[in-house]
Amino acid sequence: MSGYFTEKSSTDTVNARIGDDVSPRLREVMESLVRHLHAFAKDVNLTQEEWEVAIDFLTRTGRMCSEERQEFILLSDVLGFSMLVDAINNRRPAGATENTVLGPFHVGGAPERAMGDTIVQDGKGESCLYEGRVLDLDGNPIEGARIDVWCDNADGFYSVQQPDLQPKWNNRGVFTTAADGLYSFRGIKPVSYPIPDDGPVGKMLAALGRHPFRPAHMHFMITAPGFETIVTHTFVDGDPYLASDAVFGVKESLIAEFKPHGGDTDWHCAFDFVMVQTG
Amino acid sequence: MSGYFTEKSSTDTVNARIGDDVSPRLREVMESLVRHLHAFAKDVNLTQEEWEVAIDFLTRTGRMCSEERQEFILLSDVLGFSMLVDAINNRRPAGATENTVLGPFHVGGAPERAMGDTIVQDGKGESCLYEGRVLDLDGNPIEGARIDVWCDNADGFYSVQQPDLQPKWNNRGVFTTAADGLYSFRGIKPVSYPIPDDGPVGKMLAALGRHPFRPAHMHFMITAPGFETIVTHTFVDGDPYLASDAVFGVKESLIAEFKPHGGDTDWHCAFDFVMVQTG
Asked: According to CATH, what is the number of the domain B94-275?
């Protein structure tokens, strides 16, 4: 082999350039990336004009990024890439609660609240009592599980999206289980909302005939000593976007029933979380 | 199939979302892109941390882009992707002059010069007489072929990179063949130079144990009515970077011999260009 570039040998030519002292993992990742990128261009006989459109798209996506907006994560999300990476890194045995994407709206350091307390601070929305247990794979309750919850408000915005309109910790809180593994808190029944679609990724979704909506969901991050962290949502059963979540976050096992409650609470949602031991 | 995302069905789930009214070509390109991106993540079991590094890399690459700097094109170049797209779109029969990448330094509207004239305006560098013919595949001379040439100066910079230090059309010019198909002009023997490596792409090259240099070359864009346009370089035989061009632009058939000339000219470079008829 001459070492010069040809259409046929393109992948090998590029990958042969990687130096001898490069970390084996970086080599593995980059070789695979080059192999798949080149195979893509060959599969579709990518034209020069299409390449120019792609360069322009990436450039506009970069220009959209700021402290408040991560358009490349959005791109990864709508291509199902974020969910795929989440799935690869969180394979769990049957019976364990499945993971889904963290999303961009989690804020660390939310207030610790007492069991049964409310997370709603803006008085908006249909009220909902959330209840359930945190269990291990054998059905034993887990003591000291830390349950960090967050969701959008009744207008479809997270508090971080509206720092001037919502209290900082609106619809956010942390609850810790006792020996019985039980949790309960009051919140709202969340509502569906569009991901930010005024940038290049939104234009791409429109060109692909896709909508930007996510089905209504409550976020949970559950940690407990000796157990794998669960990052997940529960989705409101019956939401019209369940089967077409713009970021592919829905898993069948995460769809939760919201039942009318009565009294001073509109809804009731029961959901148990099952954690996997580490090691 | 539920339509919900699973690791196994990830590609199908994402591609099934494309709307019915989407152009067949956009569908083909995006389906292939999703297939290859997902296969990449699965092949290497991409970790969450590696995904974060990738998002950060793309974001920094976007931030580096400006009117004067296109870091995404640079990224495409060093991954061999630009050369691959060029190869796919310029397949030619044996005997025809091969294409290579246009590069970012071409400027339209260069002065038309008389055969034999010089393109050097800064008085720097080792002088060289360029000569040869523009032919069709049967060896017949092509009349009216427009030969647009450009190269870096003796310091390794194109005139557009040094608008305050070099005359605008330094080392640039356009020559048009007569019935004999002959061309000749005076320039310099070009020198090797690094692609801009002070950004994320330069850091990536360093992490991969690669250098940023391109071997010395003269650019040619040759157009003639009834013939496919040739965009190519001739490379200086013996250049130490021939086998390791940072952007993979070298093809064996494009390496040109530079011979000592004598008289008031240091070097002589003979090279014939062979064009393919259109249609």
From this structure: 2.60.130.10
